[in-house]
Amino acid sequence: MFTKVVIAGFALSMAPAVEKPNFLIILADDMGYGDLGCYGSKQIETPVLDRMASAGVRCTDGYVAGNVCAPSRAALLTGRYQQRFGFEHNLNRGFPTFPERLGIPKEQKLIANHLKDAGYRTGIVGKWHVGDSIPEMLPNARGFDFFFGMHGGGHDYFPQPRKHKLMRNEDKAEKIRTPYLTDWFTEEAMDFMAADGDKPWFLFLSYNTPHTPMQAKKEDLERFAHIPDKKRRTYAAMQWCMDQNIGRILEGLKASDQLENTLIVFFSDNGGSVTASAACNAPLRGMKGSFLEGGIRVPFIWHWPAGLPAGKEFGEPIISLDLLPTFMAAAGAEMPPRERKVGRKSVVEWDGQNLLPFLRGENEEAPHEALFWRMTLRGSAVREGKWKLLVNVHTPPALYDLENDVSEVNNLYGKHPEIVERLWGWLNKWEDTLEDTPHWLEDAYWQTYNRKLYEHDYWLTQPGRDDDYRGIKR
Q1: What is the set of domains in the chain, with CATH numbers?
Q2: For the ranges 10-19, 90-99, 461-470, which has the lowest average pLDDT?
Q3: Domain Sulfatase N-terminal spans what residues (predicted)?
């Protein structure tokens, strides 16, 4: 039996306790590493996410597998480095390739498929952006029981009846439910979590906040009137709105007795877009699109009262690839073999690690020996322990000691040849395991853009409450 409870205007089902936890991924879009209070922001208020961090596990060295939106999401959804199936760049419809190659290949299993097989009801709300050129690439064909959102990478935050691109499953949404898109995504998410049924659920809440276009509600803008720069003020207002909507979700889960046994993971799909939205990645240098820390390191918060400690800081490197095996372990489900033989080659089926013993303190080793990044024609990087090798096509190679130089300002490449050789070895060995080549490439324009990412003079300290922060120093 389910009892209806109304919270903030939404009917929520009082669900009976389930042995398996629910899973909720909340993904921000182009959010800066330093733009949460719990990650040092002095300008942007995020009280809900700050409370989540204090009641859960806050990761200082959380990474995503891609430095731009679509490849990062492809890795998250598959639990595999996206280079394994040719998804290295943002989608490029102008590149001469077959439609069935422009996205996550249809034969590739997603996290929704795995959890559906494990007895879960599955849904996605928000941004898809991993392929829509053929019907077999769309969410409802990829293991998701429910989809509401847009297939592409961006959307106006004030959708109009005849000008929006929002879909409910396979049909265009007929009417505007609420004027602001972040609020609308939240309402759809709460409906999904409240649906009657005896199955546990998995929801991917894929906000497009605070991705461009820079649009915020009037009342949220007024809250940040003290910020001089209009773009930064709008960004802060969008962040505030997302934070408050996450608060509504937590209230709803608590009222329906689901919060205790729901594993929530919050992070961003890549680093903040400093020039486009005045995001702040301080103390990290770089931004979205680069292999500097500001492009790939993101806030990572884990919250599961029934299964994880509260008030813990975790400092070892983790990556978004870890979500799939972690969720499967929490669900009591088995992962398929990590590798399978295809001819003479071993194909790696999944790349992450089950983080539960690490986040709980049961295993004090580092979850990963090394982490890897690559975008053909842009560069690559590898991190092993405190050391990071960065190979950018526009600048000399660099070696950084992230333990003592998190801002990556001191290039030690010429001072530690033995470490350089070892990290090159890691990178070469990893690339040897990749069974595919890029299925498409980005436009030539992005080469000039890429070079500038390493030339900008970034803020490496958090701006104060009233500082005129505009992203990069003028």
Answers
A1: 13-453 (3.40.720.10)
A2: 10-19
A3: 21-333
Annotated active-site residue in 69, 368, 439, 456: 69
Closest CA to 25 of 239, 320, 313: 320
pTM of the model: 0.95
Residue 444 has pLDDT above 90, yes or no: no
Whether 38 is a known active-site residue: answer no
Query: How much is the pLDDT for 195?
Result: 85
Paired residues of 25 in beta bridges: 204, 265
Could you give the CA distance from residue 333 to residue 325 in angstroms, rounded to a whole number?
Answer: 9
Classify residue 378 by burial, with Cβ atoms within 10 Å: 0-12, 13-18, 19+. Answer: buried
CA dist., res. 264 & res. 51, Å (int)? 13
- In the set 89, 114, 129, 439, the catalytic residue is 129
Residue 415 class from Cβ within 10 Å (0-12 exposed, 13-18 middle, 19+ buried)?
exposed
Query: H helices within 257-398, ranges in order?
Result: 274-277, 293-296, 323-330, 356-359
How far is 126 from 423, CA to CA, in rounded Å?
A: 38
Tell me the C-alpha distance between 108 and 110, whole Å.
Answer: 6
**Closest alpha carbon to 233 in 463, 474, 473:** 463
What would the pLDDT profile of 215-260 be if each residue is shown by its tens digit? 999 999 999 999 999 999 999 999 999 999 999 999 999 999 999 9
Residue 248 CA: distances (Å) to CA of 12, 167, 253, 254, 258? 12, 23, 9, 10, 14
Q: Does residue 129 have an active-site annotation? A: yes
Q: Is pLDDT at 11 greater than 90 in this prediction?
A: no
